Amino acid sequence: MADATTDTTTTAAASGNAAASSGSNAGQQQATQQTPEQKAAAADQPTITRTAAPGANRRRTRCPFVAAGIEYIDYKDTDTLERYLNEQGKLLPRRLTGVSAKFQRQLTIAVKRARHVALLPFVAENVR
After folding, report:
1. Which residue segment(s) compose the domain that 24 sits in?
2. Residue 85: inside a domain, yes or no?
3. What is the mean pLDDT of residues 84-99?
């Protein structure tokens, strides 16, 4: 009788070693099986689906010139141009202003023209 129990324990230990060496797939299969109560509880909880990085679903800002329906940025409109200059007189980058690439190029040319005609200063007063 003692021999029968030792045989069962050795076969159980051998089968446990076999399961451990096979990547413990048996343990994974048991963990994925759920009871009906667990399935009902999981159905009540909302599932989280992630499509991209956490900050990637941020809403894109629309170009203010496109939103206003402006086709061409006029260099004589200094009030508009000054909104896109910092306190030193430098142009603000697109990532801060939300201006599209097309209008950023037009804005750059308009600021340069306004500076050349002396409508805008090249350098702000406080920098001189």
Report:
1. 1-31
2. yes
3. 94
Q: Is residue 50 part of a domain?
A: no
pLDDT band at 25 (very low <50, low <70, confident <90, very high): low
Kindly state whether residue 87 falls inside one of the protein's structural domains. yes
Using an 8 Å Cβ cutoff, are 121 and 128 in contact? Answer: no
- Residue 18, pLDDT > 70, answer no
Spell out the alpha helix ranges (H) of 22-100: 25-32, 36-44, 64-68, 78-82, 94-97
Residue 52 maps to a domain? no
Model confidence, pTM: 0.55
Tokens of 53: 């990085």
Give the dihedral sign, CA 15/20/22/24: positive
The pLDDT value given to residue 26: 55
Nearest to 97 by CA among 126, 118, 73: 73
Burial class for 107, CB neighbours closer than 10 Å (0-12, 13-18, 19+): buried
Q: pLDDT, tens digit, for every residue of 27-49? A: 555 556 878 777 777 777 776 66
* CATH number reported for the structural domain that contains residue 86 in this entry: 4.10.640.10
